[in-house]
Amino acid sequence: MRGKPASAKTILFLCIACFLAGTLFTGQMWTSPSSHESTTLPVVRHDGGHKRKVIEDGPGDVMEEVTKTHQAIKSLDRAISTLGIELTASKTSQTGGQGQHLRQHASNHSIQKAFVVIGINTAFSSKKRRDSIRETWLPKGDKLKELEKEKGVVVRFMIGHSTTPGSILDKSLDEEEAEHNDFLRLDHVEGYHELSSKTRLFFSTVTSMWDADFYVKIDDDVHLNLGMLVSTLAKYRSRPRVYIGCMKSGPVLYQKGVKYHEAEYWKFGEEGNKYFRHATGQIYAISRDLADYISSNWPILHRYANEDVSLGAWLLGLEVEHVDERSMCCATPPDCEWKARSGNMCVASYDWKCSGICKSVERMKEIHNACGEGDGAVWNVEI
């Protein structure tokens, strides 16, 4: 079809309209993507100069990254805490008196293998008690050495020194040691209110001298059947972190002036509360790994007024098996005598009212004759 030719004005108008339309279309093509589309695009981050592409797909991934970071921080915090404890123990052992004492033992004694190391807690004023034990359940002289060599049973009276080293008390103990050779001398100032420190030092010292399965602490006014102790401990030899004794939970004595007063009673809750479960202090045993724990961490182990409570506190927060072994707290005759006659021989015997055998020097032989297992029992135990 032939039409009317377009005018110049019309052509100019069409050109301008096409230009404007092209400009509008081009501008739309160069605008930013929508907010939804931007979350799917890769984001390049820089970490230490290295490019790392992280694809963020949504809120779930962000929370996952936050959780992982939080867990990493907690792990790092635990690692720093552990290193701090080890560093404290290392510094103290290098600069403190106990560290010097243990290094001296390590240099003078090679580590010896044993089944059990028994420390008899004693004092300068207790020579008659020690003699009553030597005359009853403790082998003497060559027999004691033979017991250590053949059965791996090590027994020592553990004691420190007086406030003035080299005093008459220390010299008297030197003479007794030269005669019997059954002492373990600790770098410790003797005193009733220092029993927690002495116990802590005992475990640190013996682990540096003997590699044993068990370590036992017993008081010097308690009767012990060595064979029964060894056979009882042998039942738990394959178990890790074992704490064996007569478990109790006595009242926290907050009244001042009474025996066993706990100055820090407020830490155990309201007045009248009881202690956590722990072994009575007359005799108890712990396995090697627990003794190692005490030895490694002694600078930060808190000491309460009572030594048995202190030990229980040191082990309370660990994965420890508490064994309530009632044969370790028999009463004196007729109780332990009846049990012996019925074939239920006791490990240890004492009087609760005296926290040991009442008048032990006079009665130890009588109790040994009535409740003792016989001198050859320990030699017949299979370990």
UniProtKB/TrEMBL annotation:
User: Which one of the record's GO molecular function terms can you name?
Assistant: galactosyltransferase activity
Q: Give the UniProt subcellular location, in the record's own words.
A: Golgi apparatus membrane
Q: What pathway does this protein act in?
A: Protein modification; protein glycosylation
Q: What is its EC number?
A: 2.4.1.-
DUF4094 domain location: 7-92
The membrane-topology field of this record reads:
Single-pass type II membrane protein
Cofactor or coenzyme needed: Mn(2+)
Q: What class of enzyme is it?
A: transferase
Q: By what name is this protein known?
A: Hexosyltransferase
Naturally occurring in which organism (per UniProt): Medicago truncatula
The top of its lineage is: Eukaryota, Viridiplantae, Streptophyta, Embryophyta, Tracheophyta
